[in-house]
Amino acid sequence: METMEPSTTLKNSGQHIFVNKDLENYSHVFQNIDRIIKQLESPYEGPFLVIERKDKYFTINIKGKNVNVSLDRLKPDYSLEDNPKVTTTDHNKLQTSDNKPDLTQKQSRAG
After folding, report:
1. For residue 12, what is the DSSP state?
2. What is the enclosing helix (H) or strand (E) of 91?
3. What tens digit of pLDDT does each residue of 10-36 get?
């Protein structure tokens, strides 16, 4: 009995939680709804303004109050104002005379 040693315990801190890298770059975030959602209801609410950034949580403004929210419950707000790289395509330019469909009827082997 004197030679027995206690077994090692598992460390819960070894679990890695996905945190989006874009959270640091955007001024607004969406918060995950932490309840059972109804059909056709979005799983996120927001966007909310980020007041302060910490290592494990952000302080965001929800209905006029500053609330600390864990990073794993946040998603960046990918909107057109924050992401100037997104461009719209003019669909009128895509239709040119070169893109006309071939309207001739083709005859099959059967006739």
Report:
1. G
2. helix 91-94
3. 666 667 778 888 899 999 999 999 999
CB atoms within 10 A of CB 56: 10
Rounded distance, CA 99 to CA 79, Å? 33
Phi-psi region of 71 (alpha: psi -120 to 50; beta: other; left: phi over 0): alpha
User: Which amino acid type is present at position 51?
Assistant: I
Distances from the Cα of 7 to the Cα of 2, 3, 10, 13, angstroms = 14, 13, 10, 18
Parallel/antiparallel/unpaired status of strands 65-70 and 57-62: antiparallel
Instruction: Report pLDDT digits (tens) over 58-102.
Output: 999 999 999 999 999 999 999 856 444 444 455 455 555 566 666
Write out the two tokens for 35: 């309840």
pTM of the model: 0.58
Q: Which domains does the chain have, with CATH numbers?
A: 28-76 (2.30.30)
